[in-house]
Amino acid sequence: MSNLDPRAPFVLDTRELGRRPGSDRQMSFTAPAPAGLGIEVLSIAEGSPVEVDLRLEAVVEGVLVTGSAYADLVGECVRCLAEVAEEISVPLQELYFYDDRDQDPEDDEVSRLEGDLLDLEPVLRDAVVLALPFQPVCTEDCPGLCIECGARLADDPDHAHEAAIDPRWSALADLQQDQD
Ligand SMILES: [Zn+2]
Ligand SMILES: [Zn+2]
User: Fold this and answer.
1) Spacing, Cα 142 to ligand 2 middle (Å)
2) Which residues hold their Cβ within 5 A of ligand 1, which is an ion?
């Protein structure tokens, strides 16, 4: 009884590994990124390559997976909205429990094999989100956008406007002068 599709790119078959504790296998593959891998402002584009290097080790309780994944990120600077392109390398580590063990109903959070199959995608997804900066910027000192016209200040550092004062601000300025 398995809900996993053995042909899905991040579903791995552990049959060759066997279940004798201590046996291990190395595997490397490249697969297309699933949709929604990342956060709104920074993510791995759907279908772009994700390189995965893994070590699978049979332990008493299940299969321990350790390794890393590499991919290109695309996103936009939170200050100036320019495109941000970065590479990401994330560590992966997860113990997948054998599904034939008694299942503690409190244990919903753990990863389980389905038969010989394991699904790396949820683990990859969590690892990517954890590794992302939540406020991506094009450069550390990005000055952002002009609050008056929306121009990107990094492209035009000497950017300035005539001091055309909004009537609401001039009323405020008058008020401040009255107080002085
Ligand atoms: Zn920027
Ligand atoms: Zn401006």
Assistant:
1) 15
2) 77, 79-80, 82, 138, 142
**Cα 172 to ligand 2 centroid, rounded to whole Å:** 22
Radius of gyration over every alpha carbon of the chain, rounded to an integer in angstroms: 25
**Ligand 2: distance of its center to the CA of 153 in Å?**
8
Q: Which of 21, 81, 86, 33 is nearest to 57 (CA)?
A: 21
What are the pLDDT digits (tens) for 85-142?
989 999 999 999 998 766 665 666 789 999 999 999 999 999 999 998 878 999 999 9
Could you give the CA distance from residue 18 to residue 30 in angstroms, rounded to a whole number? 23
pLDDT in tens, 131-145: 988 789 999 999 999
pLDDT at 1: 46
Question: Is the whole model's pTM more than 0.85, yes or no?
Answer: no
The DSSP code sequence of 74-139 is EEE-TTT--EEEEEEEEEEEEEEEPTTSPPPGGGTTSEE-BTTEEE-HHHHHHHHHHHS-SS--SS
Helix (H) or strand (E) holding 62: strand 62-76
Distance (angstroms) between ligand 2 centre and the Cα of 164 equals 12
Spell 96-134 as b/e; 16+ CB within 10 A means b: bbbbeeeeeeeeeeebbbeebbbbbbebbbebbeeebee
